[in-house]
Design goal:
The complex is a heterodimer of chains A (295) and B (268). With 295 residues, chain A is an alpha+beta fold. Chain A is built from nine helices and four strands; from the N terminus they run ααβαβαβαβαααα. In chain A, helix 2 crosses helix 8. Chain B folds into two domains: 31 residues; 223 residues, Rossmann fold, CATH 3.40.50. Helix content of chain B is 38%, strand content 22%. Chain B is built from eight helices and ten strands. In chain B, the strands form two sheets. A six-stranded mixed β-sheet of chain B has the order 6-7-8-3-9-10, sandwiched between helices. Chain B is globular. The chains are: A alpha+beta (295), B alpha/beta (268). The interface between A and B is medium-sized, with 21 and 26 residues.
């Protein structure tokens, strides 16, 4: 393809996008909204997954003791725990300490605890650090069977729930994005159909003077791809600002939540959205060309 | 995906190879002297018939047109002139028979080859078919752009043909600002800008007054004199009689007359 030809395609595409100004704008916005939603779901799903993985990697078992156990029994249990293979560190938390920690977590609302009076419902417990996540699965039931141990837990339920939440988000997002993509395809192919219609005279003349089919198709295909690309640019822009703002908020209030940092995540997401945008644009115009451009 | 990409690329390479071969073939043919030994008959129709539904448009047409000829196709309305013209550039396919344009079998040709066949033709219509939002220059240059002619060649060539049709000074006007005769001259310029072997004109003077029609015919004469073959369907008795060229008369879908220096032959 010669330089003149490429220049011709670019010129034609530009002209066409401008000529159908309103329709092009509508098209770009639709693509942008669809891709923005796709991007949001993507970020949400990635972050949930990340959170689940983070929790999974926390190699710690919480061992709650029965209320009835004595100080000697506690010491004995601590010694047993320390001897278990793979155990790195055992931290004992007395009932009073547990209450105090809870008070701290309640912060401003610690007067709620006053309702309990003098009674302390918190059990004594041990935080058992293990050398690897794999070890947790075999150790937890073993510890649970020790004398005077009420329950031994690691964050399994939470992790599994997070993983399933991430699956739901991904699945729901996929369905939503599928329908949005259909809508976007329709809008793009409709726009291209209008362009083809507006330029049918040119197309006829091109055929008469011997333009090849692909020469006739390219500007239309490029137009669809441009619309998709511009939509993706708008979507990425909004996504970047939304995620940036969200990160700021979360860091100031829920600092313990492990969020994925904006870079390089947003680069990948942006590239992904651009590819999807261009792809949808090309597909949309191709559908239209097959239907309406008999070359 | 990968397979698909590969086959796509293969197709494309094949296409590009064919493209350059086609162009070479076209150029090769162009170098042969018009009318000289070994030059291809420009248009051949063998036993061509065309039926639209239950309407028979053409029956058993046999024509040979040699390089450099000027041929009028005459006949009453609905006789099949337009169908004849459309068959020449493969706008329609015949129901039976065979057609060769410059030695290429128009019917058996692959769809991909059609554009390259059409590059050897210049087509002119009664209603000009210019693009109203482009200038005179752009309208003519368009025909060169779309067959991927390099920029540097376009400008000079377009100006030359605009000179030939006497519209160089109107290069920046839009078709709407010009008279019918001038618009048709642009259409002619567009048809000949790619240096076709055969110019096909369907009633090019149909919308013009007699004086303007003669101006147009002068241009056609000039084009013909440079060796380009011309096939023109027309209703214009005065022109056909005045030119004294070969006349094909079609009536009810059949060729009823084929004279080397004929007249219109119908009373109006």
């Amino acid at each position: 393809m010669s330089f003149s030809t490429k220049e011709y395609f670019v010129r034609e595409t530009y002209k066409s996008v401008r000529r159908n100004g309103f329709m092009s704008a509508a098209c770009i916005s639709t693509v942008a909204v669809s891709l923005l939603i796709l991007g949001l779901f993507l970020l949400l799903s990635l972050n949930t997954n990340n959170l689940a993985q983070y929790l999974e990697s926390q190699v710690q078992i919480s061992v709650y003791m029965e209320d009835s156990c004595t100080a000697d029994e506690l010491k004995a249990t601590e010694a047993t725990l320390k001897k278990l293979p793979g155990v790195v560190k055992v931290t004992a938390i007395s009932r009073e300490e547990a209450k105090k920690r809870f008070e701290e977590r309640l912060g401003d609302q610690k007067q709620l605890l006053n309702a309990l009076g003098e009674s302390n419902p918190f059990p004594a417990s041990f935080d058992v650090q293990v050398d690897s996540p794999e070890r947790i699965k075999e150790l937890t039931p073993k510890i649970g069977e020790l004398a005077k141990v009420e329950t031994a837990k690691f964050g399994r339920e939470v992790v599994e729930q997070l993983f399933s939440l991430s699956r739901i988000i991904r699945f729901g997002g996929l369905i939503l994005v599928f329908f949005l993509a259909m809508g976007t395809l329709f809008i793009i192919s409709n726009t291209i159909r209008l362009t083809v219609f507006a330029r049918r005279k040119e197309v006829t003349i091109m055929k008469y003077v011997g333009a090849t089919d692909w020469f006739i198709r390219w500007p239309f295909l490029l137009e669809g791809m441009t619309l998709g690309f511009l939509g993706a640019v708008v979507a990425s822009f909004f996504l970047d600002s939304v995620y940036g703002a969200m990160l700021g908020r979360i860091h100031s209030t829920l600092a313990f939540l492990p969020m994925l940092p904006a870079t390089p995540l947003l680069y990948y997401v942006t590239v992904f959205l651009l590819l999807i945008g261009v792809g949808i644009g090309a597909l949309g115009s191709y559908i239209s060309l097959r239907k309406f451009l008999r070359v | 995906m990968r397979n698909w990409l590969c086959s796509w690329r293969r197709d494309r390479e094949k296409h590009e190879r064919k493209n350059s071969e086609q162009i070479k073939r076209t150029l090769g043919v162009r170098r042969q002297p018009p009318g000289g030994k070994g030059s291809t008959t420009v248009l051949v129709m063998n036993n061509v018939s065309k039926v639209y539904g239950s309407n028979t448009a053409l029956t058993d047409i046999n024509v040979r047109i040699q390089p450099g000829e000027f041929v009028f196709v005459v006949g009453p309305s609905g006789a099949g002139k337009s169908t004849f013209i459309k068959l020449c550039f493969r706008e329609v396919l015949p129901t039976s028979g065979s057609i060769f344009v410059n030695g290429c079998d128009v019917i058996k040709m692959e769809p991909k080859e059609i554009p390259f066949m059409r590059r050897q033709l210049g087509i002119i219509f009664q209603d000009y078919r210019l693009l109203p939002d482009r200038t005179v220059y752009e309208n003519v240059a368009f025909a060169m752009e779309v067959i991927e002619t390099p920029h540097r060649k376009i400008k000079r060539r377009v100006m030359n043909v605009l000179d030939l049709v006497g519209l160089r000074r109107r290069a920046d006007s839009f078709p709407g600002e010009l008279s019918g005769g001038e618009q048709q001259r642009i259409a002619i310029a567009r048809a000949i800008v790619n240096d076709p072997l055969l110019v096909i004109a369907d009633e090019p003077t149909g919308n013009l007054d007699p004086e303007t029609s003669w101006d147009i015919m002068e241009i056609f004469k000039e084009i013909n004199a440079s060796g380009t073959t011309i096939v023109m369907a027309t209703h214009d008795k005065e022109i056909v009689d005045g030119m004294g060229k070969r006349v094909l008369a079609i009536e009810k879908g059949r060729i009823v007359r084929d004279e080397q220096h004929g007249g219109y032959g119908y009373e109006l």
